[in-house]
Every structure is written in C-alpha cells, then in structure tokens.
Design a protein that fits this description.
- 43% of the residues lie in helices and 12% in strands.
- It has 405 residues and is of the alpha+beta class.
- It folds into three domains: 77 residues, Butyryl-Coa Dehydrogenase, subunit A, domain 1; 110 residues, Beta Barrel (Butyryl-CoA Dehydrogenase, subunit A, domain 2), CATH 2.40.110; 117 residues.
- The strands form two sheets. The protein has a four-stranded antiparallel β-sheet, with no helix packed on it. Strands 1-4-5 form a three-stranded mixed β-sheet.
- Strand 2 and strand 3 form a beta hairpin.
Length: 405
C-alpha cells in the first residue's frame, strides 16, 4: 500500500496517527526470542501495509517511491517509540540498497518486497578471523562448479545470522590477481546445506554475533550480486550504505544512552543542577542535534542527486563518539544502576547492556581509525597511506591466517 505523497504536514500527521495507534505495547514484557521475532515480523508487515516501509525505495519493487524528506519525517516521529525493527536493520540498511543498486531485475523482484514486508531477514558476511579492517585480505573461496559456485571458508562477527533467511557474502574467486581484485559478492540462503551458524556470546551475556562456516555450500550462478571478480566495488557500495545506515540510525528517545534518558537519570539522582553534569548534558544535546542536522543534509543532497559518498563515515564516526561520551556521562548522572540493580529493574538492565555494547560500536562497520582514514583521504583529500601489497597477487601474500604462498 503506497503512502500518500502529499504535503509534508499531511504525511507527518498520517505517520503520527499510525504510530500512536500501532507502536505502543507491540512487544509484551518477558517475551521469548521466538515471540520477539514474530512480533518484529508482524510489525514490519503492518508498517509496509500502511505505506511506511521502504519509503524512498522504488515503487515497482515494493517500496513507496517517496522522497528523502518523507523518510526524515517518519524517522523524526518514530524516535518517540522503541519500534521492534532491529532484525531488519541490516537487510533494509545495507543488503537491500545494494541489491537495488547492483542486482539483476530477477533479484530485485524476488528479494526486495519480501524484505520490506518483514518476511525474510538478512545478514552481511564480510569479516573473517584474519580479515577484519582489511576486508580485501579475506580467504573464503568460491569455486565454479558447473552452473553453480561452491563456497568454502569462515566468516566472523556476523550480526543476526542465527535468525537470517538470506545473507550477502564476499568470497575470493581468483587468487592470481591482487587482493582487491578477484572478489565476488553472492546472495546465499542461510538455511542451505553446508552453511553452519554458531552464536558468539559477548560480555553482556547476549549473542548478537555469530561465526558462520561454509562447508562446500553451493549457490547458483544467478546468486552473483554485481559482476564476477568485481566484488570489491560491490563491497565498497555496501560498506557505504552500512556506514550511512549506522551513522544515521536515529535511536529512540528511550535509548538509555540518549540525551533524554541521561537527563532523566540526572534528575532522578538529584544531579541535574551539578555544573559539570549540566555542562556535559548540554554538550550531549548539542552533538545529538548536530548529527541529526548533518543526516538531514545528507538526505537532502541525496534527494537532489548528490551521492553522500565517503561523508557517511563522518556520521558513523560522530555517532560512535557520542556513544563513548554518553557512557562517561551515565556515570556522572548517577546511573550506578548499570553496575547492580534489582531483577525487576528492566531499565537499569538495558543501561548496563548499552554500556557494555559501546566498545562494539567503535568496531562495527569499520573501526573509528578506518573511518578517520576514509575521511582524511576521500573527504579532505589528504595523501593515502602506503599500500605495498596493492599490486601483488593474493596467493603471494602472507596476510590474515594465510600461511603458504
């Protein structure tokens, strides 16, 4: 169902009314993981039916075909709610846009609409035990076999793989060329034989990440996303979407490390009049607002046809810095509840999880150091760092876990 593309005020009123009717109490307290997934899929389906999923995506593939301004309006209104859309962030923020950019007509018509309707969950499989920041050093192989490809290797830190139906994976299809060439991107069925997902438990006690083993998993030739041996260009496109998605993902006002929650914590502990706390709260508000305005600018430029390009890394880096400062401010605001709390205190538990999750924010989607390099080289025009292995055939490199030539 396509949302009305009328006056912005009319669209805002429609969004506000729909969220007020459908967003609150969507997910019952104490629900199990299967119940949470079912609720998330139900909400995403309702969101699409109302015309608020895929707002800027092409109408012919299941999107709404509306403007970036409409998307911004929806995001602004949605911040008042903690929507159950986390399982779809990677698919809708990274995989889907890349399929729209590079996919065949068959791929777009097969995958985009089910993704928008919440029928299928997606993950991204790039990192490996020996290839994290240097993704081009990946060793996972894809070898041709008739009309198919056989995938062999391991991926690491794959968010949401345990719940995913499909994934986008980067594999090496030619080791006789330099490492940035000879890569190919594939769409893979995460339930296919030869695909094994093993959850990884982190210090919060949760398992948001996974290691994924490909033991001779077969994918058809039609699963190639983009062009064979030109997967690095496809990866750059997807990483660009990823950084924009991470940097522009507006947290709800209930975010335990957001300005609103930190202000409430300071008031609850009688520290909102402390000059140091007040100064840092003002700084937190200013940084959050500055990021929102920068994101709005990127969207307006995209609407006018200007690609945000590497500037998405600015949004990602700023968002990570805001998170780090918020962790320090949470302690000053009196939130010792993140260290110990009563079992029924769900808000303190969420704060503790947010604090423990902060280090990962500085790694996911490319480390802070990688973002600074990207900004320096591609935004500011500074000289690139030396790359002595740029023109060396991959099989001759001693990189990652590769031990033989």
């Amino acid at each position: 169902m396509r949302a009305s593309n009328g006056e912005s005020s009319h669209f805002r009123v429609a969004v506000r009314a729909w969220l007020a009717d459908h967003a609150p109490s969507w997910l019952p307290d104490g629900s199990s993981v299967p119940e949470q997934l079912a609720a998330a899929k139900g909400f995403q389906a309702a969101l699409w039916e109302a015309g608020f999923a895929g707002i800027t995506w092409p109408f012919e593939y299941g999107g709404q075909g509306l403007s970036q301004a409409d998307q911004q309006t929806f995001d602004e209104e949605a911040r008042a709610y903690d929507l159950p859309v986390a399982p779809f962030v990677i698919g809708l923020g990274m995989c889907g846009p890349t399929i729209v950019d590079l996919g065949t007509e068959e791929q777009k018509r097969r995958f985009i609409a089910p993704m928008l309707r919440g029928e299928e969950i997606w993950c991204q499989l790039f990192s490996e035990p020996g290839a994290g920041s240097d993704i081009a050093s990946l060793q996972m192989r894809a070898e041709p076999y008739g009309d198919s490809w056989i995938l062999t290797g391991q991926k690491l830190w794959t968010t949401g793989a345990q719940n995913s139906d499909f994934g986008v994976v980067l594999a090496r299809t030619d080791s006789d060329v330099p490492k940035h060439r000879g890569l190919t991107m594939f769409i893979v069925d995460m339930r296919a034989p030869g695909v094994e997902v093993r959850p990884l438990r982190v210090m919060s006690g949760q398992s948001p990440f996974n290691e994924v083993h490909f033991n001779g998993a077969a994918v058809p030739g039609s699963a190639v996303l983009g062009v064979v041996n030109e997967g690095w260009a496809a990866a750059v496109a997807m990483l660009g979407h990823e950084r924009v998605s991470i940097g522009t993902l507006a947290p709800p006002t209930s975010d335990p490390l957001g300005y609103t929650s930190l202000l409430q914590a300071a008031r609850a502990h009688g520290r909102d009049m402390n000059p140091v706390v007040r100064d840092q709260l003002a700084d937190a508000y200013g940084q959050e607002r500055a990021l929102q305005l920068f994101v709005a600018r990127l969207r307006q430029e995209a609407e006018s046809g200007r690609d945000p390009g590497a500037r998405g890394s600015i949004a990602k880096l700023v968002a990570a810095n805001i998170s780090r400062q918020a962790v320090a401010l949470a302690g000053l605001a009196g939130s010792a509840d993140a260290v110990a709390w009563s079992p029924e205190d769900a808000s303190s538990e969420q704060l503790a999880i947010a604090v423990l999750s902060d280090p990962g924010i500085h790694l996911a989607g490319g480390t802070d150091e990688i973002q600074r390099n990207i900004i320096g080289e591609r935004v500011l025009g500074l000289p690139k760092e030396p790359q002595v292995d740029r023109d060396v055939p991959f099989r001759e490199l001693k990189v990652g876990t590769q031990r033989t030539t």
